[in-house]
């Protein structure tokens, strides 16, 4: 990472903390590695992103329904899914720093550095070597690659590495009152299996016909050894997943449709299309016949935000075998029973949060010939902004605060609002810019005469005079979910 991009990333992290979006978990006890808390504004933004996803999946699609499955599930589920035996990452330790890393990510970081240094040929060759080693599950080869390319520990700066070995990422715990008689269960490492084991329940109770989807938002837990890149890689995180059940033989057609649909969903938020790319998987998971990541260009390089996978019939077939329950669907159109194939779309909510935050944080130079000026602004799409509008009385006297409170009390029934009467009006604008509030409403002396107020628009900084009784409609139209969802139709 260059100094410029490193500074940009540090600005994102510090801004997120300073303005109440993201805090280090247990910070007063020196924190807990790779675990974060969402502050007052972060919780609002996160909830709005969840709402956008849920509306776009469940509300806009008659053949998609949502569920909320439990975090604890029968341990045999994870045996059937392959997580007990195969949910591993190739890990390597540095003997000097005592730090543990994912071997493939150390090599990927080196590839990024080669690219940034203009060594494209070297980057391409290293990528090929990495792909070959991963496809062959050749752990000694991964260590050899690390040594050949002089990859050092980011902490100690040395090349004193252990052998590469596999490390299971699931958290295990005991369920039961007595440790001796307790059953070992796992905190779910993904939300998908909760959907698969409820396939028949949803299909029958909802009278669902293929093709149909089941959506879910929920927490998942992985014992990630590497704590880095802020909320990109955490031990406790949230996923937004759709499992879309289709007739066998049609899965790749649906896979292409969902690829296009999901990228369109991200771009509707106002992101720069040049910041996104598809990255096809070279090594497919054992259950997949096609897989692609939607990647975003973060300050530290392109990283996955969402995965689209054609999972075939692996999951339902495995659960049928381990549970001895038939996981079949009778298709009246072809008069046939079959186990459906599945196309999955899976978004990391925390990564999406970071994507939106990084994409929205802008430093603007407002200097003129007369004076130097600048502002820091979060240009969130109004529909997902944590605070929709702020109310300012111009002064703390002459009845202006009382009038402003009167307006606030009416609007807060529909919108998340803030009231602010401290400091000069310019400083108040800057505070709201920094948290992404799209509209500021100022109550002044003219308001008492004609019941009008000033609305100031965040992005253009232009102001307009409007009647108080029109505020609910005006703000409602500006922050409406329709402005996002219409783009997805």
Textual characterization of the structure:
With 489 residues, this protein is an alpha+beta fold. It has three domains: 57-87 and 170-357, Bira Bifunctional Protein, Domain 2 (BirA Bifunctional Protein, domain 2), CATH 3.30.930; 88-168, Herpes Virus-1 (2-Layer Sandwich); 368-488, 3-Layer(aba) Sandwich (Rossmann fold), CATH 3.40.50. The protein contains 17 helices and 23 strands. The strands form seven sheets. Strands 3-9-10-16-13-12-11 form a seven-stranded mixed beta sheet. Strand 22 and strand 23 (463-467) form a beta hairpin. Helix 3 crosses helix 11 (314-323) and helix 5 (103-116) packs antiparallel against helix 6. The longest helix has 20 residues, at 40-59. The model has no long low-confidence stretch (mean pLDDT 91).
Task: Give me a quick take on this structure.
With 489 residues, this protein is α+β, with helices and mostly antiparallel strands.
CATH class of the largest domain: Alpha Beta
Question: Which oligomerization state do the chains in this entry correspond to?
Answer: single chain
Please indicate the percent range of residues in DSSP E strands (runs of 2 or more): 25-35%
Largest sheet: 7 strands, mixed
Which structural class fits the helix and strand makeup?
alpha+beta
Gross CATH architecture of the largest domain: 2-Layer Sandwich
Q: What is the CATH T-level topology of the largest domain?
A: BirA Bifunctional Protein, domain 2
**Uncertain segments:** none
Biggest sheet strand line-up = 3-9-10-16-13-12-11
Q: What is the CATH superfamily label of the largest domain? A: Bira Bifunctional Protein, Domain 2
What is the number of strand segments?
A: 23
The termini sit apart by 39 Å
With helices defined by DSSP (H or I, 4 residues minimum), what is the helix count? 17
Number of domains: 3
Global outline? globular
Radius of gyration: 26 Å
- Helicity, in percent? 25-40%
Round the mean pLDDT to the nearest integer and report it.
91
Domain Aminoacyl-transfer RNA synthetases class-II family profile: 138-393
Binding site for substrate: 102, 190, 237-241, 344-348
EC number: 6.1.1.14
Binding site for ATP: 222-224, 304-305, 348-351
């Amino acid at each position: 990472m260059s100094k410029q991009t490193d500074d940009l990333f540090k600005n994102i992290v510090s801004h997120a903390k300073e303005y109440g979006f993201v805090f280090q978990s247990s910070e007063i006890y020196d924190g807990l590695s790779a675990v974060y808390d969402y502050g007052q504004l972060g919780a609002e933004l996160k909830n709005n992103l969840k709402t956008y996803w849920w509306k776009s999946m469940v509300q806009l699609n008659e053949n998609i329904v949502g569920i909320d499955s439990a975090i604890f599930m029968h341990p045999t589920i994870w045996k059937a899914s392959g997580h007990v035996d195969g949910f591993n990452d190739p890990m390597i330790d540095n003997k000097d720093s005592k730090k543990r890393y994912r071997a493939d990510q150390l090599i990927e970081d080196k590839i990024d550095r080669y690219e940034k240094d203009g060594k494209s040929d070297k980057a391409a060759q290293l990528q090929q070597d990495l792909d070959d080693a991963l496809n062959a599950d050749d752990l000694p080869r991964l260590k050899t690659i690390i040594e050949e390319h002089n990859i050092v520990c980011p902490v100690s700066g040395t090349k004193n590495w252990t052998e590469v070995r596999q490390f299971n990422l699931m958290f295990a715990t005991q369920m039961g009152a007595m440790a001796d008689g307790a059953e070992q269960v796992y905190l779910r490492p993904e939300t998908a299996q909760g959907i698969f084991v409820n396939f028949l329940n949803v299909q029958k109770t909802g009278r669902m016909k293929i093709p149909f989807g089941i959506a879910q938002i929920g927490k998942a837990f992985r014992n990630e050894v590497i704590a880095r890149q802020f909320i990109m890689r955490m031990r406790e995180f949230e996923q937004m997943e759709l499992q879309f059940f289709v007739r066998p033989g049609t899965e790749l057609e649906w896979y292409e449709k969902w690829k296009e649909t999901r990228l369109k969903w991200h771009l509707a938020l106002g992101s720069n299309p040049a910041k996104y790319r598809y990255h096809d998987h070279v090594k497919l998971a054992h259950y997949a016949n096609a897989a692609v990541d939607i990647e975003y260009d973060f300050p530290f390089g392109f990283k996955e935000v969402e995965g689209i996978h054609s999972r075939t019939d692996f999951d339902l077939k495995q659960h049928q075998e381990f549970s001895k329950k038939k996981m079949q669907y009778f298709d009246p159109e072809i008069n046939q029973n079959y186990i459906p194939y599945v196309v999955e779309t899976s978004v990391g909510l925390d990564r999406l949060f970071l994507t939106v935050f990084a994409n929205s944080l802008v430093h603007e130079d407002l200097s003129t010939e007369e004076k130097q000026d600048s502002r820091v602004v979060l240009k969130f799409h109004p529909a997902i902004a944590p605070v929709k509008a702020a109310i300012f009385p111009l002064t703390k006297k002459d009845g202006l605060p009382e009038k402003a409170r009167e307006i606030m009390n009416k609007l807060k029934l529909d919108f998340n609002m803030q009231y602010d009467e401290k400091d000069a009006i310019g400083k108040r604008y800057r505070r709201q810019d920094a948290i992404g509030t799209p509209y500021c409403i100022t109550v002044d002396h003219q308001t008492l005469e004609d019941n009008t107020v000033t609305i100031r628009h965040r992005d253009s900084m232009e102001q307009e005079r409007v009647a108080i009784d029109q505020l609910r409609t005006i703000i409602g139209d500006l922050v409406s979910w329709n402005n996002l969802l219409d783009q997805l139709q």
